[in-house]
Structures are given as structure tokens and as C-alpha cells.
Specification:
single chain, alpha/beta, 2 domains, two-stranded antiparallel sheet, 9 strands, 40% helix, acyltransferase, 1-acyl-sn-glycerol-3-phosphate acyltransferase (EC), EC 2.3.1.51, transferase
């Protein structure tokens, strides 16, 4: 992994132009970004929203544009099996999730983002909106303890409502199509659900996005406790609770937001001109 191969400011600006319509439609709001440490290593740990298409990208541009933070994201190896996408994603900081890559990022004091729920959390089933699917995954906690990396929990709300689940991955796997996918060795957590956005199209509904950063969690107290399972579980639980609390706060904020819909935001802008 060559950390020197970053996009130039011009390339980031060009890419941001492509994302501008998304920012306009979703009008993201961020809370408590001032809590982010000014120096790394920092590990952002948060919830993956449905399909995982927009949450990381919007947050990436926000951190880059507002705080001059270049964020590396740990991605599933499946990302790197897709031509063109692997090149584009890699250029903008996505690296394959591995112990070696994570170690290098932390030793180089970088800002790194990880979704412990991975594909399973992105490809949710019905009734699982904003539920964490971390299962027994503790890798992020172990790496943070080993390298004394500060963890910044974050929560995201909004993307779950961009799509309606028509046929979730569990239903697909229970169908004849699922039988065929299993025969071809498809990973269960990589079965993409069938969704609809605007009308019957795959275009996402213009929902407002909300992000919240939690209090940084120091791993200093866990120094030398890498093999202590209780310490690892305690750190994981602390991070998880912060993410879940952030989700609940954002859901409440959204419920009370007079401009949460695109129509209300346009109307508000017109009235205040």
C-alpha cells in the first residue's frame, strides 16, 4: 500500500463536482465535528447504512473540505475485484481491510474509517434499519489497542430512507435465485437486496443526511492488554454504545427538523431570499 498516491487537490475538486448534486439533494448536517482530534492516528468507527453507497463518501468530502483530513477507509476485498471501481475507490483512500494495511495506517498516524458491520450491515434485511450487525467482530478494537490509536465513534442517519427494501437478502437466499447463487459460491453477506428509490427506479429518494461524532475514546488504559478478552470486549462495547446513542440522537433531531424534506428546504430558501 503506497500512501503517497493521493489525488491532487484538483482531482478532489473535480470529483466533488460530481457529488455536488448529492450534497444538494441530501443537504447533510454534521454535529460535533470539533471533537475530532487534530492529530492521528484516529480510527473512525460507525454504522453502515443501507447499501453503504453514500454515508462514507459524503463524510469523506466533508472532512476533506472542512478540516483538511484525508480519510482512508478499510474496505471489503470484494471492492477490489471490480474493475474501474477498485481504481477509483483506491485513489480516494479505500484500502483492503487487512491487519497489514491497518497497521501501516496507524503507524503513519493517519485517519482511518471502518464499518465493523461490513457488508452484512450495508445489505440489511427488512426491519433492521439503523441496527448494528457487528456480531463477534473485534478486529478494530484489537488494532486500536495494539497501536494506541484514538477511536472516534460516529453515527449516520438518512440513507436508510433513500430506498425501500423490496426483496431483502434473506428472501433472495430463500428463493430459487438464492439456490443458484449458493451453487456459484456467493457469499451470504454479499447478496445485494432489491430496492426501489424514487418511484420504481433505483434513484435514491432525496432524504436529508445527519452525522454525529462522539467523544474520542482513548485506548491508553488498555495498553498492554491486547490478549485480554475482557478489555477488548469492554472497548468494543463502549464504542458500540456511543454509535447507538448517536443514532438515537440523530433520529430525534430529524424528527424535530422543520427542513428534513427537500420540499421544505426549497421552500425555506425561497422564503428567506
Amino acid at each position: 500500500m503506497d500512501l503517497s498516491k493521493r489525488p491532487s487537490p484538483k482531482e478532489v475538486k473535480q470529483m466533488f463536482q460530481l457529488f455536488k448534486p448529492l450534497f444538494w439533494l441530501n443537504d447533510p448536517v454534521f454535529y460535533d465535528a470539533h471533537l475530532i482530534p487534530k492529530e492521528g492516528p484516529v480510527l473512525f468507527v460507525g454504522n453502515h447504512t443501507l447499501l453503504g453507497l453514500w454515508d462514507a463518501s459524503i463524510m469523506w468530502f466533508k472532512l476533506y473540505n472542512d478540516k483538511d483530513i484525508f480519510t482512508y477507509s478499510l474496505g471489503d476485498r470484494a471492492h477490489f475485484q471490480v474493475p474501474f471501481w477498485r481504481t477509483l475507490a483506491g485513489k480516494f483512500g479505500m484500502v483492503e481491510a487487512s491487519r497489514e494495511n491497518c497497521t501501516q495506517l496507524m503507524k503513519d498516524k493517519q485517519y482511518t474509517l471502518v464499518f465493523p458491520g461490513g457488508a452484512r450491515e450495508a445489505f440489511k434485511n427488512k426491519g433492521e434499519a439503523y441496527k448494528l450487525k457487528w456480531d463477534n467482530r473485534t478486529g478494530f478494537a484489537k488494532m486500536a489497542i495494539e497501536h494506541q490509536c484514538t477511536i472516534v465513534p460516529f453515527s449516520a442517519v438518512g440513507a436508510e430512507e433513500c430506498y425501500e427494501l423490496v426483496w431483502d437478502s434473506e428472501e433472495i437466499l430463500s428463493s430459487p435465485l438464492g439456490t443458484l447463487l449458493k451453487q456459484f459460491g456467493a457469499r451470504k453477506d454479499m447478496v445485494i437486496p432489491l430496492v426501489k428509490g424514487v418511484g420504481l427506479t433505483p434513484l435514491p429518494k432525496p432524504q436529508r443526511f445527519y452525522y454525529k461524532f462522539g467523544e474520542p475514546i482513548s485506548t491508553e488504559k488498555y495498553k498492554g492488554m491486547l490478549k485480554d478478552e475482557n478489555a477488548i470486549q469492554e472497548l468494543k462495547s463502549t464504542v458500540r454504545q456511543s454509535v447507538e446513542a448517536g443514532i438515537q440522537d440523530l433520529l430525534e433531531i430529524r424528527n424535530n427538523d422543520p427542513n428534513k424534506t427537500l420540499f421544505k428546504r426549497i421552500l425555506s430558501q425561497m422564503l428567506h431570499k
